[in-house]
């Protein structure tokens, strides 16, 4: 039972850290007491820290990977290849968040939700990598695409961003329907 929990602990930790960052951002960004502070840098550093902790938790579960393991009624599979891909994904997510610091400064972008969306899409990609069943893969792809829809339309004052988000949503809805119904 402990091996089962240890195998999915990086994903569970990253989801919980993402929700805590979301709650932290919502509470403090709307706080009149703290004079509505810009939290994007704070949330970005905490998001980077949570990705690195997830990377550490994933590497601590590596001795379990001598052979392929199935979890949760064969919804997820964990073997050496999924381990390698998840390490690569978490390193890429850490690099993406670290690149975002320059973007936030240059564009004066002050929406902490962007980092939360990056972390949620990273969680869904982690689930998609270890998915062994079609339904778990489909749900992970849908969660990832929902995050990307919002990220594509994140610039509220730009018509191009709104158009891109809407087109991406329509294209995703059609491709999801084709994927489900054949």
TrEMBL record:
The way this protein sits in the membrane is described as:
Multi-pass membrane protein
Provide the primary localization: membrane
InterPro entries, A to Z? ND/Mrp_TM (IPR001750)
Q: Where in the cell is it found?
A: Membrane
What are the transmembrane regions?
A: 6-27, 39-61, 81-104, 111-129, 135-152, 164-181
On the tree of life, the source organism's domain of life is: Eukaryota
According to the UniProt record, one GO cellular component term is:
plastid
- What's in the keyword line of the UniProt record? Membrane, Mitochondrion, NAD, Translocase, Transmembrane, Transmembrane helix, Transport
Domain named NADH:quinone oxidoreductase/Mrp antiporter transmembrane is located at: 131-182
Give the matching Pfam families: Proton_antipo_M
Q: What is this protein called?
A: NADH dehydrogenase subunit 2
Annotated source species: Pelargonium citronellum
Ranked from the top, the taxonomy reads: Eukaryota, Viridiplantae, Streptophyta, Embryophyta, Tracheophyta
């Amino acid at each position: 039972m402990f091996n089962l929990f240890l195998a999915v602990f990086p994903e569970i930790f990253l989801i919980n850290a993402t929700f805590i960052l979301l709650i932290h951002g919502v509470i403090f960004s709307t706080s009149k007491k703290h004079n509505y502070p810009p939290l994007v840098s704070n949330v970005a550093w905490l998001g980077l820290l949570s990705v690195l902790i997830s990377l550490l938790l994933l590497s601590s579960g590596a001795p379990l990977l001598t052979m392929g393991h199935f979890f949760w009624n064969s919804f997820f599979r964990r073997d050496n290849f999924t381990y390698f891909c998840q390490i690569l994904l978490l390193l890429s997510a850490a690099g993406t968040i670290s690149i975002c610091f320059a973007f936030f400064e240059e564009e004066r972008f002050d929406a902490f939700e962007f980092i939360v969306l990056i972390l949620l899409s990273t969680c869904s990609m982690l689930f998609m990598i270890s998915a062994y069943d079609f339904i778990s893969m489909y749900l992970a792809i849908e969660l990832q695409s929902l995050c990307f829809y919002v990220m594509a339309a994140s610039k509220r004052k730009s018509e191009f961003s709104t158009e891109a988000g809407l087109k991406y949503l329509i294209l995703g809805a059609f491709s999801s329907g084709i994927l489900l119904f054949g």
